[in-house]
């Protein structure tokens, strides 16, 4: 049986935040260290994204909650996360493929997020040369990636 993706709704906002927190703490501890996770700000961002008619947020869940998420707007992959206990199962690639199929041709990724960058580069995407500051403390650098 295949993986069943569904469109997220406002009811999923807290689950999206929790999944993003789990993935960030596991994969980006070297960037954010012991800083408190910005739960309220991230929850507010998810509420805005879920209310934006231009953004599609898709999720996969199991008995423990959300397992994977992908958010895209037809041009940009906005967010992609997989719960750490499912890393290596192919969900990141599948989420990425969903965003690409919907027209995503660019994304932003933390410069220090080697795991994500390896995925994007293995799929042919490359840094465009454009950078920006991440809005979360300690404000690390984000790189723009573009489709081949």
UniProtKB/TrEMBL annotation:
This protein's UniProt keywords: Transferase
Pfam families registered for this protein in UniProt: Acetyltransf_1
Keyword Transferase on entry: yes
InterPro entries per UniProt: Acyl_CoA_acyltransferase, GNAT_dom
SUPFAM superfamilies attached to this UniProt entry: Acyl-CoA N-acyltransferases (Nat)
Keyword Transferase: yes
Boundaries of every N-acetyltransferase domain copy: 3-148
MF term (GO), any: acyltransferase activity, transferring groups other than amino-acyl groups
UniProt superkingdom: Bacteria
Name of the molecule in the record: GNAT family N-acetyltransferase
Native species: Nocardioides eburneiflavus
